[in-house]
Structures are given as C-alpha cells and as structure tokens.
Design goal:
about 60 residues, mainly beta, four-stranded antiparallel beta sheet, about 40% strand
C-alpha cells in the first residue's frame, strides 16, 4: 500500500548568491529548495534553473 507523505518543512533560496550577474546575463534564474518529510530528518535538497527566454525549467 502506497502512503503519501506530508511535507513537514521546506525552504527556497533564490537571491543574489544563487544568481550572480553572470547567471542573469545568460537569461537564467537559479534556485535551491529543500524539503523535509518528518522530524528529525535531513532536508532533501534540489537545485534548478529556469531559462527566462523560453520558460524551460531544469531540476537537478
């Protein structure tokens, strides 16, 4: 039986640290986010970027 897990906590980072001038000049927006499903557990961290010209999003 599959059980869906509720998200306990999350965070998103999208600022001048993740988007220096070089990234902005490439028409990209980079971001990081973390998801925690239960306490005490570590965050699962993802990174991604969005091309501002096409709207294409890539998650790694």
């Amino acid at each position: 039986m599959k059980r869906d897990r509720e998200i306990y906590d999350y965070w998103v980072k999208c600022d001048e640290e993740t988007n220096p001038e070089e990234v902005i000049n490439q028409n990209k927006c980079k971001f990081k986010y973390g998801i925690k499903y239960q306490e005490p557990a570590d965050y699962i961290i993802f990174e991604g970027e969005k091309l501002l010209t096409t709207g294409e999003v890539t998650i790694t």
